[in-house]
Design the sequence.
């Protein structure tokens, strides 16, 4: 852009009453230049060497977001590092008169395509890992965990979720005997890698959980809400399904496997945490939908084998759905809002075998309903902070 | 001998407007605008620092920051997946004996990120320098992020093993590593001196640190709870002396740096001044949040009232929708106000104070400097953004 000499030196010199500092982008030495607007161009003449550069007016840009309002910083749109610094108000006025629509300098265009491609790649990589690889790794990994450690793990999870918060366990003798009776009837001919530990915990929410290593927790409200012992047995069979599929252990391994991944998108306090929360919710729901259906299928087979009608599962689900119970947790997850709810009910209904053999006699059923006549407070009621073993329960 | 002094040309009101505008846009775009926010604030701060009346220029763009962030997310996702996979099998392998393996594995997973954090800091610094110009000349930094990461890890281990005695060695060697890879145009920066010159500056900090560790130990050993009382004094003093060491070490090391053929520097921020800025900044932030948020909330409540959806029974049992609107409005207000106050009351005065103490000696030697080639900052500090270990702006 720099020409050897102005085309008409005398003419240029006459108008050279405006000055600025120029940096040529090659050396940090300040060049004092006279500034003249000549047609569509700006002529910059070094006051010492008399060499002249010509900048096109329509290629001039000002630097955006500048703190100092007493200086006008000009650059060229061709990405050249040369800069013109105008401190004199008269010079600034002269230039702004010649370029009334002076625009701010922008980064190179065409970057949006790259941003889009990278955005898709990032979303794809995260989704692939979280929804594809991590569950597969957890499923495979769960096979290698020795049963004894699963039992110990389940105890830790139970302690953190229930015992540490002062949960009250129902332990009336007759009720416990009835529960054992129901359990051994269901388990006839079934072998699991570890013994079942079924506990009834006092809680007003209708729910049941399977933790790793055969630990099953039934809320007392679930027994109160059931109209027949078969309904309780159906839910218990469903939980035994989770135990047989090692869903609790897989959930723990998944949470180890997805550590830190969701947090990557966070970055700041606000927007990221919303996205992270939504991802977490989508993740849990996609993991558990398949697990719930598999546990239903397991329960249906188990109930059939012992001569109890799997229709009890459907009856109970339907009653819960009709009562508008909060069903976002545990065994009832997806029951209220998901389209596959009906499918689950229909599947259980289809497996109905009519009047089966009662699972408990009237006296035992009454005893089970009264299991909370005696209680023990599990562990010390020390209120532990939220445990880090998220995802272990809830199944 | 001539000296170029630095002045700060920024106006707090202007910064307030910029912080407010970009803060609101960040909230409205669910955080996406934060790359533009950071870029615009950097441009503003850079241009306000005028060395010998010539402002710095920040030439980074938000698009390259966003692209870099996405790249970092992809790389980190795969890294974390590999590491988590290893952790998973470690969990399974260890599970034979100890029942507490779960907690152990949970506790060790974050360690995977420690070297990455050092790497991210180096790369973020490299990117920022490559996008910094003064008098039209680019600054720059040579590669070496992994060399920095393993050195940083090693020096931290040495510092902990030596109960802090080798802290000055860490400070000096890491600073030297960074300085010796920094350029202005084709002129290299160089760090001279040795760790020994920091020993005086660190002594008060080490004494306070040892006291803060020693007092509880003494209390446990002797059973005398009176020892704990000493912590009331030593903990704040540890914090003060830590700032003082940081400031002192920066000053001492700056005076032992050279640029090119013999340009030198001076930077002399005051410890007391920086601590006062932090304390007053936090007090002002709390006051602003305490007085402005109720006003904003009042407006929100007023709008709800005017929209005709108000009914006296709502006071006792607010409908979930209204409660959600109020909760989100509160959170957003506090979030935006906090960001603005952070800039206006803390970052602004700190940058101004530190900037104003900066001096460049022998500026005539600048004429020996020539431009350097443009560097493409591929990840544009994205690792630091993804791990949230970036700077305040």
Sequence:
């Amino acid at each position: 852009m720099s020409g050897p000499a102005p085309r008409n030196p005398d003419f240029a010199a006459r108008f050279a009453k405006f000055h600025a500092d120029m940096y040529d982008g090659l050396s940090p030495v300040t060049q004092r230049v006279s500034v003249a607007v000549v047609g569509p161009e700006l002529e910059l003449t070094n006051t010492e060497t008399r060499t002249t550069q010509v900048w096109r007016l329509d290629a001039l840009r000002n630097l955006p977001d500048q703190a100092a309002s007493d200086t006008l910083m000009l650059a060229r749109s061709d990405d050249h590092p040369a800069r013109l610094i105008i401190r004199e108000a008269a010079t600034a006025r002269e230039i702004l008169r010649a370029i009334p629509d002076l625009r701010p300098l922008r980064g190179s265009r065409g970057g949006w395509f790259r941003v889009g491609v990278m955005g898709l790649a990032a979303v794809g990589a995260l989704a692939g890992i979280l929804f594809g690889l991590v569950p597969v790794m957890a499923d495979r990994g769960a096979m290698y965990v020795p049963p004894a450690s699963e039992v110990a793990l389940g105890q830790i999870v139970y302690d953190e979720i229930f015992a540490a918060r002062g949960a009250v366990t129902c332990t009336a003798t007759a009720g416990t005997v009835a529960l054992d009776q129901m359990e051994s009837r269901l388990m006839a001919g079934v072998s699991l890698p570890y013994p079942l530990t079924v506990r009834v915990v006092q809680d007003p929410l209708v729910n049941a959980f399977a933790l790793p290593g055969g630990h099953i927790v039934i809320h007392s409200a679930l027994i109160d809400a059931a109209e027949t012992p078969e309904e309780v047995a159906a839910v218990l069979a469903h939980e035994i399904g989770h135990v047989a599929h090692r869903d609790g252990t897989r959930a723990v391994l998944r949470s180890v496997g997805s550590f830190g991944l969701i947090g990557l998108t966070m970055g700041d306090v606000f927007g990221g945490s919303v996205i992270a929360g939504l991802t977490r919710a989508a993740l849990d729901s996609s993991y558990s939908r398949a697990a719930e259906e598999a546990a239903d299928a397991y329960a249906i087979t188990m109930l059939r084998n012992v001569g109890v009608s799997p229709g009890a599962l459907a009856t109970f689900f339907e009653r819960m759905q009709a009562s508008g119970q909060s069903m976002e947790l545990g065994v009832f997850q997806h029951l209220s809002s998901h389209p596959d709810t009906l499918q689950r009910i229909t599947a259980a209904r289809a497996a109905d075998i009519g009047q089966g053999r009662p699972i408990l006699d009237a006296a035992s059923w009454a005893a089970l309903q009264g299991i909370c006549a005696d209680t023990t407070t599990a562990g010390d009621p020390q209120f532990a902070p939220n445990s880090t073993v998220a995802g272990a329960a809830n199944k | 001998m001539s000296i170029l002094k630095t002045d700060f040309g920024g106006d707090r009101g202007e910064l307030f407007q910029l912080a407010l505008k970009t803060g609101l846009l960040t909230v409205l775009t669910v955080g996406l605008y934060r790359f533009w926010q950071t870029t615009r604030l950097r441009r503003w701060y850079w241009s306000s620092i005028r060395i010998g009346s010539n402002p710095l220029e920040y030439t980074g763009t938000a698009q390259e920051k966003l692209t870099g962030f996405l790249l970092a997310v992809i790389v980190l996702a795969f890294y974390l997946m590999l590491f988590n996979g290893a952790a998973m099998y470690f969990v399974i392998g260890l599970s034979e004996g100890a029942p507490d393996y779960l907690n152990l594995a949970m506790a060790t997973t974050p360690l995977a990120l420690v070297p990455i954090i050092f790497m991210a800091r180096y790369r973020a610094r490299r990117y920022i320098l490559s996008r910094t110009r003064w008098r039209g000349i680019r600054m720059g930094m040579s590669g070496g992020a992994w060399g920095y990461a393993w050195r940083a890890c090693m020096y931290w281990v040495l510092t902990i093993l030596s109960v802090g005695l080798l802290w000055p060695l860490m400070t000096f060697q890491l600073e030297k590593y960074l300085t010796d890879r920094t350029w202005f145009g084709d002129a290299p920066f160089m760090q001279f001196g040795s760790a020994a010159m920091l020993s005086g500056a660190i002594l008060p900090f080490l004494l306070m640190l040892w006291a803060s560790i020693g007092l509880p130990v003494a209390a446990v050993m002797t059973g005398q709870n009176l020892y704990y009382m000493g912590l009331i004094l030593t903990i704040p003093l540890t914090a003060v002396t830590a700032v003082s060491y940081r400031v002192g070490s920066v000053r001492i090391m700056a005076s032992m740096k050279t640029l090119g053929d013999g340009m030198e520097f001076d930077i002399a921020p005051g410890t007391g001044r920086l601590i006062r800025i932090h304390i007053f900044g936090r007090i002002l932030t709390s006051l602003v949040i305490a007085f402005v948020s109720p006003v904003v909330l009042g407006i929100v409540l007023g709008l709800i009232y005017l929209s005709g959806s108000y009914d006296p029974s709502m006071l006792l049992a607010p409908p979930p929708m209204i409660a959600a609107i109020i909760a989100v409005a509160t959170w957003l207000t506090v979030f935006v106000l906090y960001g603005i106050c952070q800039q206006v009351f803390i970052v602004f005065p700190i940058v101004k104070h530190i900037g104003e103490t900066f001096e460049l000696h022998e500026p005539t030697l600048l004429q020996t400097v020539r431009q350097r080639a443009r560097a493409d900052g591929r990840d544009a500090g994205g690792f630091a953004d993804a791990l949230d270990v970036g700077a305040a702006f």
Q: What stands out?
A: The CA atoms of residues 145 and 249 of chain A lie 8 Å apart.
